[in-house]
Amino acid sequence: MSAVGLDGLARAGVTIAIPNWNHELLLPRAISSALRAVAQLRDAGVPGEVLVIDEASRDGSPLLLRQLEALYYRDGLRVLSMSDTGSLAASRNLALINARYRYVAFLDADNELIPENLPTFVRALEETEAAMVYGNLLVRTPVSRCAMNLLSNESVQLKLFQFNYIDAFALVDRCQFFDLGGYQESYRALEDHEMWQHLAVNGRKIVFVPLVFGYYYVLPSSMGMTAGNKATETAAHNMRIYNQLQARSHLPLNTRWLRFHPALGYL
Amino acid sequence: MSEPCKEAEAPTIASRATGPHALFRALIVIPGTVNYFYNQSGRRLGEALRELGGEVDIATLQECPERDYDWCIFSNITEVLYAVGEEEGVRRIRSLAPRWRHTASCAIDCVRTVWYERIWESCRRCGIELILDMALCDQSRFLAADRLSNYRFVFSGLTPSERDALEELSQRDQPRTFPWAFVGHKTAYRAALLDHLLQSVDVGGFVYMPSPAPYTENGSPHLNQEKFEMVLRQTRYQIWCSHHHHFYMEPERFRASLLTGGVPVKILDSLDNVPSDAPFSYLMMSAEQVGPRLRDGIFQRVRRRFHSDWRGAPLLSEELSRVLLLPSAAEQTRCRAA
Questions:
Q1: What ipTM was reported for this prediction?
Q2: CA distance B285 to chain A (A)
Q3: Cα separation of B302 and A103, whole Å?
Q4: Are residues B106 and B212 in the same domain?
Q5: Which of A40, A139, A149 is the best mutation test for B, with the most CBs of B within 10 A?
Q6: CB B275 within 8 A of CB B245
Q7: Which pLDDT score is estimated for B220?
Q8: Which of A77, A231, B11, B117 fits A72 for a cystine, CB–CB 3.0-4.6 Å?
């Protein structure tokens, strides 16, 4: 896979990256929301694309994706197919390398963007020069008609070094992510939590925008639900790296309590 | 320590005030650093009492002057005790009480919640005579018989500065970024309501719903009043629901929207619970009604009606005069003329 995107690392615009592993039945919803978001961006004068990274799926996703790409290429849909199933972190890094544009919105294949709000998140990322901006995620089950919980609903606080409450479903500046080495590909769980702590302790800004970014669907067999012991071990590993002496509360943190909306500034 | 007085024994107009124009003297005791909400409430009370010609001191319990007062009002008693420590607070109140002719605590809570019950209990323990329910709707109908004697409904009307702010607001308007705003702690019900608002009203609403949890960091990681008002000034509809299922009209929410040029919308489980004499009933609705009723073109009309209704409502000073049997503003003017 050639790293063609690196030629335009700082090119203005947004790539909506969708890592997919065997989510054939849910992909159309994610892709549809992403394509509508690209349309909203273009109306706002911001170039955009949708980049699906298929992790060697076996369920029919590859066939579906070939058809969708043929239908929607001119609307900005591209598909990259991996030959092997790597980690989710590896897929995200691949998205960062191959994105056409500087800003990358990560959207899991079983989730859904709120297209109308993406331009505001783009403005927030530009104006704050943050490494990442994120917003409220409404949590639903596949059969529910309304949400039953909220994720990613608060700014970065010290408790982030105890547990993760910010999902990877967010908008990032890939230049800053590359500066810090991207996602840890050896991680099979909590790679996003590791990344947030890595950004925070390296002085980067992670900013909460008080809008709804998208819908997060909880599936019984999703990675977050089945991580189990692996997640526990990884959490302990993260604690060893980022908060071993529980001293984090005594150290400066550039990204504490950052909330921003372009119409209001920092709150 | 005096027992809570009954309606028939309501206090009379005091005449211990000093100074050429003061008709009475009042002390407002606020929590201080603990609770901005009740500090502000205390200042509002002070402003309204001054409008009635009173000489008013506002202080924390640790700092309150050892002087004679006609009225001592706590804003509110449980928060004041929490700020200084329960036992120390009760001890200090008992030592100062002989210098206060009458006492009261304000309350800004639904009377069917544990928070009001704590106020009642603290008043009993400290010998505070009255509970002033700073509300929009009389809650005495929801109280048990043994809780009625010291309850006084005080319509939380506007103070002089708030009236001025409302008039100034009417003369200038601005485009509003947010079609609606929802600020409050996260609950499952509120998450569902939020989803409904996105689907039925507009996806661009302002949403701040942190998880309820004790804050162990210095300072607060959440919106303060100043920031909240900044948001409301850019918002058409402030939408909320109570975190309990009793009927209650949060006066601070209604007034915050009023003074920032927006419109408050309270979501209720059931409209059957709304008393017939509740003001602003057109601003209370079920979740199903929200979508059809919040449309472009209606905002300006609803806001005009909301402003007009407030202007016709009793002022806070008028209500305090009525409940505490203080001279009204008209009587004050006559006294001065004489």
A1: 0.93
A2: 19
A3: 41
A4: no
A5: A149
A6: no
A7: 66
A8: A77
What are the tens digits of pLDDT across the range A186-242? 888 889 999 999 999 999 999 999 999 999 999 876 655 555 666 777 888 888 888
Residue from the list A211, A249, A257 with its beta carbon closest to the beta carbon of B207: A211
CA dihedral A224, A228, A234, A240 (to 10 degrees): 120
If asked whether residues B323 and B278 sit together in one domain, one would say no
CB atoms B192 and A146 under 8 Å: yes
**Closest to A264 (Cβ–Cβ): which among B207, B217, B231?**
B231
Q: Are B92 and B61 in contact (CB under 8 A)?
A: yes
> Could B221 and A261 be called an inter-chain contact, meaning their C-beta atoms sit closer than 8 Å?
no
A139 CB contacts (<8 Å, ≥6 apart)? A147, A148, A149, A150, A151, A215, A216, A217, A218, B191
Contacts of B206 in chain A (CB under 8 A): 210-211, 261
Q: pLDDT of A31-90, one tens digit each?
A: 999 999 999 999 999 999 999 999 999 999 999 999 999 999 999 999 999 988 778 899
3-state secondary structure of A104: strand
One domain, residues B299 and B327:
no
| Fold of the domain built from segment(s) A4-266 | Spore Coat Polysaccharide Biosynthesis Protein SpsA; Chain A (3.90.550)
Among the partner residues A149, A157, A210, nearest to B207 by beta-carbon distance: A210
For residues B16 and B118, membership in a common domain is answered with yes
Domain ranges of chain A: 4-266
Which residue of chain B is at minimal alpha-carbon distance from A255?
B221
Distance CA A135, CA A155 (A): 9
List pLDDT tens digits, range B69-107: 999 999 999 999 999 999 999 999 999 999 999 999 999
Query: Which residue, among A116, A121, A154, would best test binding to B if mutated, counting the most B CBs under 10 Å from its CB?
Result: A154
Q: Render A35-98 in DSSP notation, one character per residue.
A: HHHHHHHHHTT--EEEEEEE-S--SSHHHHHHHHHHHHGGGTEEEEE-SS---HHHHHHHHHHH
A136: contact with B, CB 8 A cutoff: yes
Judged by a CB distance cut-off of 8 A, whether residue A261 touches chain B is yes
- Could you tell me if B131 and B115 lie in one domain? yes
Q: For residue B257, give the nearest of B298, B208, B297, B310 by alpha carbon.
A: B310
Domains contained in chain B, number: 2
Chain A CB contacts of B198 below 8 Å: 114, 138, 212
